[in-house]
Every structure is written in C-alpha cells, then in structure tokens.
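Internal tracking record. Fields below are filled automatically when a chain is submitted to the structure queue. Please do not edit lines marked as system-generated. If the sequence contains nonstandard residues, flag them in the REMARKS field before resubmitting.
Queue: standard
Priority: normal
Entity type: single polypeptide chain
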Amino acid sequence: MNKKLLSSYKFGLIGGAFCIAAFVVFKLIGMDPTKLSMLFGYFLIPFFLFIGIRFYRNQVNQGLLSFSEGMSIGFLIYSITGLVSGLGIWVILIFSSSLYEEIKTKKIEILTENKDLIVEQMGVESYDVTYQSLLEMTALDIATNDFIWKIIPGLFFTIIISIILRRNFK
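SYSTEM-GENERATED OUTPUT FOLLOWS
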C-alpha cells in the first residue's frame, strides 16, 4: 500500500489545490463558487485519476495494472482531492464569514424563488424541512457537500479508467 500511496498522493493534492483555486476564482469573477467548483471537479477529477493511474501503471508498476490496483490508486486520488478541497473550502468560509453568509443567502433565495415548484412536486413539508435546514447550514456543511461531490463522481470515473488502463501482461 505504501507504493500506491506514494505514487498517488501528489495527484490528489494537486487536484485538491486546483479545486480550491477554482472556488476562489469563481467567487472573484462573481459566480456561485459552490456550484461551479463542483462542476469544475467533474472535469478535474477524471483528468487527475487518468494521469495518476497511468503514472502508477507505467512508472511504478512496470507497465502492469490490475483492476484492483487501479481502483486503489483512484480511491486514494479522489479521496485526497475531496479532502483537500473540502478542508480548503471550509477554512476559506471560516475566515470569510461574509462569503459564507452570501452563499447561504443565495441558496435561500433560490429555494424561495422555486417554492411553488417544490411544493407542487414534493409537498409543503419537504419545502419547510429544506428551508429549515438551509437556515441551520454551517460552513462545514458546505465543505462536506463539496467533499461528497468529489467522492461520488470519483468512484464512477475510477471504475471506468481502471478498466480502460488495465494491463495484466507486457
């Protein structure tokens, strides 16, 4: 496992740093950093998974890669990326309470604007529960959501990339 961790942590760290940078850049250009950072992650995660798994196969494991090795390397990469991204966003939101309040207010506004549609489709109870949860939302909730939305596509892309890059013979 040491060989796998040593060959994959740098891809996870760089991916996480890119996600944090995207969060900051999207905020600076006046866009919703939570949604766009998540969308950016959908393109970034597969890129770093591919180059990380390929690096392990070609540079560390003499051109061989089993499906389980690809899954292990991918897990490490997307977990580290999600962890770094989530922690970075959490720290940013803790030190920038105005950004946190802006994000929270924007989410409440969007929910309020779509009240009729939500009540029609889900019921008034669902709307009320969602509204209450947004009122109680913390910076850690936003960071956790970012982490989760790095992990879910990471697993999906890891399966595909591990199958594509699998090579059991030279």
